[in-house]
Amino acid sequence: MSMRAKRVTNATALLDPNAKGWEKIDREVVDLAGMPVHLQTSRYVRTVWADKLVGKVRAISVRAAHDGERLAIRLEWNDDTENKEFAERQFPDAAAVVFPTNGDAPLVTLGAPDAKVNAWYWRADLEEGENLVAQGLGTDTPTKDTPIAGRGVWNDSRWSVVVSRELKAKGADNVKLAPGKTVKAGFTVWEGSNRERGDLRSYSRQWRELALEP
Amino acid sequence: MPKNGKAPAGKAAGKASDGKASSGKALAARAAITHRPENQVAMVFDLNKCIGCQTCSVACKTLWTRDEGTDYQWWMTVNTQPGKGAPKDYEQMGGGYREGVPQEGILPTREEFGGGWDFNYDEVFYQGKGNTVHLQPLGKKPTWGPNWDEDQGAGEYPNAYYFYMPRLCNHCTRPSCLEACPRSAMYKRPQDGAVLRDEENCRGLQFCAEACPYKKIYFNYVKKVSQHCIMCFPRLEEGVAPACARQCPGRLVFVGHLNDVDRPIHKLVYDWEVALPLHPEYGTEPNIFYIPPMSPYRLKEDGSLDTETPRIPMEYLERLFGPRVHKAMNTMQSELAKVRSGGKSELLDTLIVYRWHTLFEPFSRDPVEVGGPKAIAKR
Predict the structure, then answer these.
(1) Which one of A144, B107, B252, B258 has the lowest number of neighbouring Cβ atoms within 10 Å?
(2) Confidence grade of residue B30 (pLDDT, cut at 50, 70, 90)
(3) Closest residue by Cα to residue A15 from A87, A120, A125, A113
(4) Taking CB atoms and an 8 Å limit, are A138 and B184 in contact across chains?
(5) Does residue B217 belong to any structural domain of this protein?
(6) Chain A residues near residue B181 by CB distance under 8 angstroms
(7) ipTM for the complex?
(8) Does B219 contact chain A (CB < 8 Å)?
């Protein structure tokens, strides 16, 4: 069953994670799992993290809305520790929505050399979101030409994060979006207090379908 | 500061070969990635000459770490030994390899590095309080910094002892930092073996800093990338020695190619075996070497000389430089004895350095000839 991006009149108003408009939009809970340690590209990471908990955040709730011009996706998860910065042996909390730009791109490896993925990335210490392109673990690279709005609010041990992009975006590496279209999406979260960064994170295992209402 | 350059094609860089890898898959999985570029640049520090003046530290500081976020970074530090080092207790922070297996490392904190403090200059110099307020760091009281335990050393009077230990990135042959980076943002240059980072590709994950057993990688909290000594590669490219070596008033730092059999570094490391890496047990094969410090004899209780026992305990030197330190010290002692009895010693002549430019060959060019230190750094 696919998740729906509800058609609203003004998606820009939803860039604020606390916007009232989000309350009218159904949420879907997505289970997350820790990224497999054996897939990590660094032998140091594979060795040192072999017996450690990877992927502390095990579920997020997702809401999505668009107004024909812009898609906004709100992610929410429980987190007792607000990690806003690179700090002493801690990393900023982060999250991303991942889209395949090639139908066969695998989610667990964040794409492949011949199958790129596009990610809308939010990190607690950054003022803006980032548009990432990846073709395998450890290859995620920010692209400067596509603005991604990203904003997070931590309240009552819970992060609420909105990532958003205009539907229209140039370039083959950006996910193609349009009203009435269904795209695949994956979700991933980094828990900074658990020193999660890079490909140490939790992820949604499978692509989910996200249908933009006509 | 120049970009560290792009990683060369085939990022494993240079002659990335692992001699042992061919003998079986299991072994290959355990062996650390080894890089042996033909023209590995190495340095030898003669600790017998180091006076702890920090000119090397400042030469590096003024040349490379003046940008935002680098205030607390001292790519070159000189610490008193025995001591806790910089960052504090770095020898207890793990990293490196044991039998080829990566060891978990701890990320040093900003406070454990110390340094980069802002001082109350304004108050003392411009607000008329020069006689009532002393110069001190603003904010939280520092608890550690570079060379914090200066000249404390160890031992009891009259047999107290200490010596100085300049430390920089070891530009290792098995760089655990490089292998730890999940993004292949680090590489070892084939032309000189400098271990560098492509800052454009660095995302501040800091696995490099965890995995470095010498804790010589710093995090730039402004640029949000890791940074470390770049072996003054723009100077090397111009035939100029790294600033720490060139500026050393004690003339104690040799720079050159490790494989150049006719020059001092190769002889000191391989022929005489008196130049040793720090903590060889970390398994990363440093390319920075040290001539261990000789020390005066101990005094007995009656004030007479104990000619059997050096004041710096050999057990301590062994802890720093490994078991080969015994042979190195014996060689130094016997060469000294040779000269004292009227003989000649090529080893001692090499360490005396009659012509200081020979320290650096083939990097003995005067930086002024190529536009001055700042101009080279900007290239």
Answers:
(1) A144
(2) low
(3) A120
(4) yes
(5) yes
(6) 42
(7) 0.97
(8) yes
